[in-house]
Specification:
The complex is a heterodimer of chains A (about 450) and B (about 325). Chain A is α+β, with helices and mostly antiparallel strands and about 450 residues long. Helices cover about 20% and strands about 35% of the residues of chain A. Chain A has helices at about 1-10, 25-35, 45-55, 65, 70-75, 105-115, 130-140, 160-180, 210-220, and strands at about 15-20, 85-90, 90-100, 120-125, 145-155, 185-190, 230-235, 235-240, 250-255, 260, 265-270, 275-280, 285, 290, 295-300, 310-315, 320-330, 335-340, 340-345, 350-365, 370, 375, 380-395, 405-410, 415-425. In chain A, a hairpin with a 4-residue loop joins strand 20 and strand 21. In chain B, helix 3 links the parallel strand 2 and strand 3 (about 100-105). In chain B, helix 1 packs across helix 2 (about 50-65) and helix 6 (about 205-215) runs antiparallel to helix 7. The chains are: A alpha+beta (about 450), B alpha/beta (about 325).
Chain lengths: ~450, ~325
C-alpha cells in the first residue's frame, strides 16, 4: 500500500482560494463544514472547541472557534484578520484564505484575493444579491481572480426553491460578467444542513452541478500562465566562487509568468542589455525549460551586469519601462495616502523611491460610482493613483500578469505596507458603469 | 434548467501540464522566500532544533542557493534537555555542510540565576529569553523559523514575514497585510523579522517531501523501543532531566516522536511505523494533530501559543 499511496498523494495539485461573505451569511459555518466534512478537523481540535464552548456556557460546540484564533477575536466574537487554513482530499490540497466579511475589512479581502485562484462569494438566499455581494464581486474582478463561485446559502430557509436560486444566480452572473469576471459557478447550498457543500443535496434534485468541494477539486489551476509573456524577476545572484565552481554566475528567481527555454534571446531590464540563456538550473538540476511558478537559476551567455531587482524577459516580448505608473490601488494602512506622499514602491524584486502625483478618483464599491479627486485615500479605499518613480520600471498591465502588474507602496519612515497596486485598467470591460458626473476621473 | 449553474469555459478538471504538483509549488514558494531574505537582509539566521521542520528548512535553503553554500548561519536554542540523538544529528549536519552554529543555552541562564526552573519542569517557555537576547547581541535581522500555520490557530494568523519589535514581541493586531508574493522586510534598527518559509506546509506535506527528497532524520522519528513513563497522558522519555518522579513507572514501549523539542514536554506516540512509508500512512490516518498528540505546553491554556508568541517565542 505505502509506496503507491505516497506517490498518489504527492501528485495532487494545490488550489489557493478565498472566501468572502457578510457577517451573517454563514461563512464560518461553510468553512467549518468544509473542514469538518472533509475530515480535516481532528479530534483534539474538536475537543478544544467543545471545552471552550462549554466554559462559556454554550450548549453546542461553536464551530467558529475553530477558525477564530486570537484572544481578541474570541473575546469579541469577531474575526479581525485573514487566517490561512489547510485541508486536503485525495485529489487536491487546499489553502484557504479565510477573510473577514465586515465592510471595513476590504483590505483583508484584497489580501486574500491577491493570491487566490478562486473566490467563494456567499449570499443569503433570503436576501439575494445585496450591496455587499456586489462589493465582493467587484473586488474579485479588480484582483482578477480567475474563478468565482457564488454560493447561495441558506437554501433550507427558502424551501429549497429552484426559482429563488435561479434568480439570484442570473442576477449575479450578469453583474459579474459585466465586471469582466471570466467564470462564475453558482451553487445552491445549505452550509448548516450540509447540502451541496461536500455531499450532494438530497432535497435539491433539480440541481445538476457539482458540490462546492467537487468544484474546488476539479477547477483547473494555473491555467495558461505558462503561455503568458515570460518574466523572471532577479532575486539574488548566485556566485559560489569555490574550487568546484570558480566561474558560476547564476541569476536566481521565481518565474512570475510564462516559460523560459535554454537558447532563448533575452533582454535584461531596465538596462536593456541582450544575451541568450545558456542554461537553467531547477534547484540544482539542469533543465531545458522552466515555467511559472518555478524557482530557478538562469545562466546567461554573456557576462553582462545583472543584479537583484532586474527583470529578465524574452527580447521579442519585452514590456516598456516607465517612470509614470497609473494604477488602481487599495489602501491598506490606517494613515491616509495623499497627493505628494513620498513612498517606496516594491515591484517584483525591485524597491524604488516614488511620489504620489495624483489621485484622480476614488471608487465606491457599492455602486461602482466614482468620486473625482478625493484628495486622499483612507484605509479600505479603492481608487486610481498616478505615481512617479525615481527609476524606470518594467511594469506589465495587471490584466496580463498578476505578478508583474502588481506592486505595494511602503512608508519609508517606518516600513508600513501602505497600499496594494494593480497597473493599468481596473476592470476587464473598458467602462463598467456609466457615470455622468465624472468627466476627468476614470479616464480609461 | 440549471444553465446558470454550470461552469463556463475551461476543461473539466484538466490541469495544465504546466501545473506544478503541490509539493513542487510549496518548494518553489519556500525557495523564493529564502532568496528574498538573502537579497534584502544583512544578517539572517536559521533556527535549527534538529527537528524535522528545521531539517526541511535547511534542505530547502541548500537547494535555493546551490551550487553555492547556504548564506545563513544556524541558531540552536538548547534547552539542556535535548535528545542525545538530535544533538548528534545537529553537529554532524553542521560539519557536513560547513555551516556556522550559534547556540543560545537555557542551562547557562539557569546556572547564572537569570532564569528559574519551573515547578512543572518544562523548559519550553524558558527558551524565549535566551533566544531574544541572542538575536539582539548577534544583531540578527531575519530569523527563519519552521513554524507552520496548520500547527495551531494562532499560527494560522501569522504572516510569512512577521515583524518583531526590539523586545521581539509579536502584535497580531498590527501585522502587515501580505499581498501577492511581495514580502515587506522593512524594519527599524533593533527590530527584526521572523520568516516562516514553511507557513503553507502541513505535517503531511512535510513528511511527503522528506520521503520524496530522501532526507535523513534523527532516528527518534521512527518507531523504536524506548524507556518511557506516563505523565499527563503522554509518554515521556526517562532521563536525567527529571523524570520519572515517585509513583511514575518506567516501561519499555514501541514508540516514535512526531515532534522534537524539550524532553520534559515532548511526548512519544505508540507506533510501529519504522519506515517513512509507514509514518506517512500513520499520519494520514491520525485523528490527532501533532501538537495535540505530543505537546504538553500547548495545553496550558487556550491561548498558550499566542501568549508565548507575543513575548517573542518562535
Amino acid at each position: 500500500m505505502s509506496t503507491t499511496t505516497t506517490e498518489e498523494l504527492s501528485a495532487t495539485t494545490l488550489l489557493r482560494f478565498a472566501t468572502a461573505g457578510s457577517v451573517d451569511d454563514g461563512k464560518s459555518t461553510l468553512v467549518g463544514r468544509l473542514l469538518h466534512d472533509s475530515k480535516s478537523v481532528l479530534v483534539d481540535q474538536l475537543e478544544a472547541v467543545e471545552r471552550a464552548s462549554a466554559s462559556r456556557g454554550q450548549d453546542a460546540p461553536d464551530l467558529a472557534l475553530l477558525t477564530d484564533g486570537l484572544r481578541a477575536e474570541r473575546e469579541q466574537g469577531i474575526t479581525i484578520d485573514v487566517a490561512y487554513r489547510y485541508f486536503a482530499t485525495p485529489r487536491r490540497r487546499f489553502i484557504l484564505a479565510d477573510t473577514p466579511g465586515h465592510v471595513q475589512y476590504t483590505r483583508n479581502m484584497v489580501t486574500g484575493a491577491s493570491t487566490a485562484e478562486l473566490t467563494v462569494i456567499l449570499v443569503d438566499a433570503r436576501n439575494g444579491v445585496v450591496e455587499q455581494t456586489r462589493r465582493h464581486a467587484a473586488i474579485a474582478a479588480l484582483l482578477r481572480v480567475p474563478h468565482v463561485v457564488l454560493a447561495v446559502n441558506k437554501m433550507d430557509l427558502v424551501g429549497y426553491e429552484e426559482s429563488v436560486f435561479a434568480r439570484i444566480a442570473e442576477e449575479f452572473t450578469a453583474y459579474a460578467t459585466d465586471l469582466g469576471v471570466p467564470e462564475v459557478t453558482a451553487i445552491p447550498i445549505s452550509a448548516l444542513a450540509g447540502d451541496n457543500v461536500v455531499e450532494p443535496s438530497a432535497t435539491m434534485d433539480w440541481y445538476g452541478g457539482p458540490t462546492v468541494l467537487e468544484h474546488l477539486e476539479t477547477v483547473p489551476v494555473s491555467h495558461d500562465l505558462a503561455h503568458c509573456h515570460a518574466r523572471l524577476p532577479v532575486q539574488y545572484v548566485i556566485r559560489p566562487r569555490t574550487a568546484e565552481h570558480p566561474d558560476y554566475r547564476g541569476y536566481a528567481g521565481q518565474i512570475a509568468a510564462g516559460t523560459f527555454r535554454v537558447g532563448d534571446a533575452v533582454t535584461v531590464l531596465p538596462s536593456g542589455r541582450t544575451t541568450r540563456i545558456s542554461g537553467i538550473d531547477l534547484l540544482g538540476k539542469p533543465v531545458e525549460a522552466a515555467w511559472t511558478t518555478q524557482s530557478v537559476t538562469v545562466l546567461l551567455e554573456d557576462d553582462i551586469d545583472v543584479s537583484r531587482g532586474d527583470l529578465i524577459v524574452p527580447s521579442k516580448d519585452a514590456p516598456e519601462t516607465t517612470q509614470d505608473v497609473e494604477a488602481t490601488v487599495c489602501h491598506v494602512a490606517d494613515a491616509p495616502l495623499t497627493v505628494g506622499h513620498r513612498v517606496l514602491l516594491k515591484h517584483g524584486t525591485r524597491t524604488v523611491k516614488a511620489i504620489v502625483k495624483d489621485i484622480p478618483s476614488r471608487l465606491t464599491l457599492d455602486d461602482l460610482s466614482l468620486h473625482p479627486h478625493p484628495g486622499q485615500l483612507v484605509a479600505n479605499d479603492i481608487g486610481r493613483v498616478k505615481i512617479r518613480t525615481a527609476e524606470p520600471l518594467p511594469v506589465d498591465s495587471y490584466a496580463d500578469s498578476r505578478r508583474t502588474g502588481s506592486f505595494i507602496l511602503i512608508d519609508p519612515s517606518d516600513g508600513t505596507t501602505l497600499t496594494a497596486g494593480m497597473v493599468g485598467e481596473s476592470f476587464a470591460t473598458p467602462e463598467p458603469v456609466k457615470d455622468e458626473s465624472d468627466e476627468d476621473g476614470w479616464d480609461f | 434548467m440549471t444553465t446558470v449553474a454550470t461552469v463556463k469555459g475551461g476543461g473539466e478538471g484538466t490541469d495544465s501540464p504546466y501545473a506544478l504538483s503541490h509539493l513542487d509549488a510549496l518548494e518553489s514558494e519556500a525557495v523564493h522566500i529564502f532568496r528574498e531574505v538573502a537579497g534584502e537582509f544583512e544578517k539572517p539566521v536559521i533556527l535549527f532544533s534538529g527537528g524535522k521542520d528545521s531539517i526541511l528548512m535547511l534542505h530547502l535553503a541548500l537547494k535555493a542557493f546551490a551550487p553555492a553554500p547556504v548564506p545563513f548561519a544556524l541558531l540552536h536554542v538548547d534547552t539542556g534537555h535535548n535528545f542525545p540523538e538530535v544533538l548528534e544529528y545537529r553537529d554532524r549536519t553542521v560539519a557536513k555542510h560547513g555551516l556556522r552554529l550559534h547556540v543560545a543555552s537555557v542551562q547557562d541562564y539557569i546556572d547564572r540565576g537569570v532564569l528559574k526552573e519551573r515547578p512543572d519542569g518544562t523548559r519550553n517557555p524558558l527558551q524565549t529569553l535566551p533566544l531574544t537576547e541572542k538575536i539582539q547581541s548577534e544583531k540578527f535581522d531575519a530569523v527563519f523559523g519552521g513554524g507552520r500555520r496548520d500547527e495551531e490557530k494562532a499560527r494560522a494568523k501569522e504572516r510569512v514575514f512577521s515583524l518583531r519589535d526590539e523586545f521581539s514581541q509579536w502584535d497580531p493586531r498590527r501585522q502587515r497585510p501580505e499581498l501577492w508574493n511581495l514580502y515587506n522586510g522593512r524594519h527599524a534598527p533593533g527590530e527584526h523579522v521572523r520568516v516562516f518559509p514553511l507557513s503553507n506546509w502541513t505535517e503531511l506535506d512535510v513528511w511527503q517531501y522528506i520521503a520524496r527528497e530522501d532526507i535523513e532524520l534523527p532516528e527518534i522519528y521512527y518507531a523504536h523501543e524506548r524507556e518511557v513513563f506516563q505523565r499527563s497522558g503522554m509518554w515521556l522519555t526517562a532521563g536525567e532531566w527529571g523524570g520519572p518522579k515517585e509513583g511514575e513507572a518506567v516501561e519499555k514501549r514501541l514508540v516514535r516522536y512526531r515532534t522534537v523539542g524539550d524532553m520534559s514536554c515532548t511526548g512519544a506516540v505508540d507506533s510501529d511505523a519504522d519506515t517513512i512509508e509507514k509514518v506517512i500512512t500513520e499520519i494520514a490516518a491520525s485523528r490527532l494533530t501533532e501538537r495535540g498528540a505530543t505537546r504538553a505546553d500547548d495545553k496550558l491554556s487556550e491561548a498558550a501559543m499566542e501568549d508565548r508568541k507575543r513575548e517573542g517565542y518562535f
